[in-house]
Amino acid sequence: MSSPPDIMTAVPMGRQPTPKTDKPTRGSKAESTPVFALKELVASLYREQNKIQNLLSSLGFALRSFNNLNQFLELTPLMAARVTDADGSALMLYKAQGQVSLEQLHCQDHETAQAIRQAITQIIGQTNHQLVNPALPLSLDEQIRQALGTKIRLYSTPILVKNIERGRIYVFSTDPEYIWTQTRRKLLQLVADQTAVAIANNELTVELRSKERQDRELEIASEIQLRLLPRQCPIIQGVELAARCQTANRVGGDYYDFIATNYDQLRQDQEIKKGDPTTCVPWSIVIGDVMGKGVPAGLIMTMTRGMLRAEVLNRHSPAQILQHLNRVMYADLDNSHRFVTLFYSEYNPQTRILSYSNAAHNPPFLWRGSSQTIAKLDTEGMLIGLDPDSEYEDGRIQLTPGDIILYYTDGFTDAVSQKGQRFDEENLIRVFEEGCQKYDHPQDILEYLFKEIEAFIGSGNNNSDDMTLVVMQIKSSP
């Protein structure tokens, strides 16, 4: 790969040294012939063209090579002055909220550079103040021209990124014979376009890095949420459990939990049985859904989990637990404009009684093994976070061996096929009934339900909502 042109040694336009030529013999008329003059003009144009190509090539090399935007911006005024044969150049960019800043200034003459910097800095201060107190009738270009006077000629071109002006490049000359030609205008525009590309590339890089950080944060949030969900189902006497939460995004708003209602008794049972994992301690089986998805829903789900676990230790009835939870969470949920549906139940292995209360969640289905029928477990109750004075009802049901309860979230019933059809509640009841008739274990029933919903959605069609199932089966007498 050839080295880039030497930017700093390029000779300004109009100041090229005269190349050495063969000296005509004494008495020759070649010096005055039109042919000789034409050759000199062609050679001069060729040198100018070659110099400009080298400068623009150097600018392109810098655009490809510089990883730091500031490095490229330092080069911009220098290149703008060289390609237009001007005495100097200034780069101004528009910052957030319309603020203007002088990024770089190039001028070989120190006194001229100092005068221009002072004038531009003063005008920028006035312009930025204008954003708060608009009173300046003149444009930025006109203000700078007036400040510099007639001795300094000023020309500019905008820097456009996605058709939005993000700054301007100014070139100035103290030569009274300096002419702003169409060629110089186009060359300055080329420099401005390269600068716009550098700015756009830098913004894309910053956005990409920000997205990478967000992705990493989402991964961490997903890991934390997965660890907060039960790693495995508890072993309860006379009960077999299976559960799965399948989030639509990395972080979801679905929630399920198993909570021992009496940790002191749980420890005593474990010490007495010495390694026997089964326990007669009542357990809470909970399922919930935060309205919404993503990180906000995941944060509320985490908050719900912590508050509910603390509330369970008070050993109130299911309805009282939901009532207290609603009062505690109402302010935070109201501020976030979100709500939580929750079905809370407690199972006593000694009596096989399931006590429950519902806060507007999808009521679980109860498969009666003895009669081969399905019923719903439901009570009256409002969403958590809708009304601080909401009241909830208690429900109780006696379970028998062979009974199976399906806790689920609306991700199942709201699932949509490729034809736009909803899976709805009737289909869920149907496949749940089929699963209960075909399989003897909750894990097999759970796998069957997920398999059926995936077949309904279709391959390559991802579900837009979280899906959670908990299957509880009564296996034997206490």
Index terms:
single chain; 478 residues; alpha+beta; Beta-Lactamase; Phosphatase 2c, domain 1; 2 domains; five-stranded antiparallel β-sheet; 11 helices; disordered N terminus
CATH T-level fold name of the largest domain: Phosphatase 2c, domain 1
Strand order of the largest sheet: 5-14-13-10-11
> Into how many domains do the coordinates divide?
2
Number of helices: 11
Q: What would you report as the Rg, rounded to the nearest angstrom?
A: 38 Å
So what's the CATH class of the largest domain? Alpha Beta
Largest sheet: 5 strands, antiparallel
Total strands: the figure is 14
CATH homologous superfamily title of the largest domain: PPM-type phosphatase domain
Unreliable spans: 1-27, 132-137
Oligomer: single chain
Return the structural class: alpha+beta
The averaged pLDDT comes out at 81
What is the CA-CA span between the terminal residues? 82 Å
% residues in beta strands: 15-25%
CATH architectural grouping of the largest domain: 4-Layer Sandwich
Order of helices and strands: HHEEHHEEHEEHEHHEEEEEEHHHE
Secondary structure blueprint with pairings:
Blueprint lengths: L33 H32 L3 H16 L3 E7 L5 E8 L2 H21 L9 H9 L4 E9 L2 E10 L8 H47 L10 E8 L7 E7 L2 H11 L9 E8 L3 H19 L5 H19 L3 E9 L4 E7 L5 E4 L4 E4 L18 E4 L5 E5 L1 H4 L10 H15 L3 H16 L9 E8 L4
Describe this structure in words.
With 478 residues, the protein is α+β, with helices and mostly antiparallel strands. It has two domains: 33-206, Beta-Lactamase (2-Layer Sandwich), CATH 3.30.450; 230-474, 4-Layer Sandwich (Phosphatase 2c, domain 1). The chain has eleven helices and 14 strands. A hairpin with a 4-residue loop joins strand 10 (365-368) and strand 11. Helix 1 packs antiparallel against helix 2. The radius of gyration is 38 Å and the shape is elongated. The model is unreliable at 1-27 and 132-137 (pLDDT under 50).
